[in-house]
Specification:
about 270 residues; mainly beta
């Protein structure tokens, strides 16, 4: 389930009651690091904000809620050491986790520049979004698709991040996720950032090619991930552009890799 937090106000509570007030003039995000500029010219960024309190508004509400940045650390699973993880808590409800657990059983969040809607579509480059690391948007950053990055050849990873969100959610048409929590998937991309599992690996033997993806959704679908949520027949009715690209004969891994349906950014397998 998506859980969006839009940052509205930041209160520097970590300085202690005796600290002189210093007005905030700007709050920005660089990668996954908050960057707060104060009227005095002082800049607090990244782990400097550990212990600070945010006032945030949920996507479906204008009411502000305080959250505290209890811990900030570099993601130990990020080979590039670029992603910061934040453990956030509700000062009014100590002990309650605001984010669900990730694959390692930990509860993390981080900010990104821009805004996304409830279907995972990036709607604006302006503003800030705080996402749980276990949500699709957060997972895709941790998969290596960092939307703020460009590769050495100038390739932006933002479309790959968007395609990854579609893939994680099994959002074939680009308007509704159909996956189920805990589903096993294997994914790889046209850049080589993620590689497919070796066929001999135990989990890989259980998987078959599912779909090819770009930023708008699926380019073709060999089988749906959770047939109880959507079948190929239902998908043909809901998403006419896919009608002649459905099923294991009309949509093969080789066809997708050859660009038969357009440029696939990410491909995946599932049970």
């Amino acid at each position: 389930m998506w859980r969006w937090l839009f940052v509205c106000v930041l209160i520097l509570s970590s300085g202690g009651a005796s600290a002189a007030p210093d007005r905030i003039v700007d709050v920005a995000v660089e990668g996954t690091a908050f960057r707060v500029t104060l009227a005095s010219g002082r800049v607090l960024a990244g782990r400097d904000l550990e212990g600070a309190t945010l006032s945030v508004a949920f996507a479906d509400s204008d009411d502000l809620q305080p959250i505290r940045l209890d811990r900030i650390l570099v993601d130990p699973h990020d080979a590039g050491q670029e992603t910061l993880l934040y453990h956030i808590s509700d000062p009014l409800n100590p002990g309650a986790e605001l984010c669900s657990a990730d694959a390692w059983g930990e509860h993390w969040a981080f900010p990104l520049r821009g805004r996304w809607d409830a279907n995972g579509v990036r709607t604006s480059d302006r503003g800030l979004t705080l996402t749980c690391a276990a949500d699709a948007q957060g997972k895709c950053v941790r998969f290596g698709y960092k939307p703020w990055k460009q590769l050495a050849d100038g390739t932006s990873l933002a479309p790959y991040h968007q395609a990854c969100i579609r893939m994680v959610r099994a959002d074939y048409c680009g308007d509704q996720g159909t996956t189920r929590n805990g589903m096993l998937i294997d994914y790889y991309d046209s850049l080589g950032l993620a590689k497919a599992a070796e066929p001999a690996e135990a989990d890989a033997k259980k998987l078959a090619f599912e779909a090819a993806w770009d930023a708008s959704g699926a380019l073709c679908v060999a089988h749906t991930r959770v047939p109880e949520n959507v079948t190929l027949q239902e998908l043909a009715e809901r998403c006419p552009r896919l009608r002649d690209r459905l099923g294991p004969e009309a949509c093969t891994q080789a066809m997708a890799e050859q660009g038969r349906f357009g440029r696939a950014l990410i491909l995946n397998k599932s049970p």
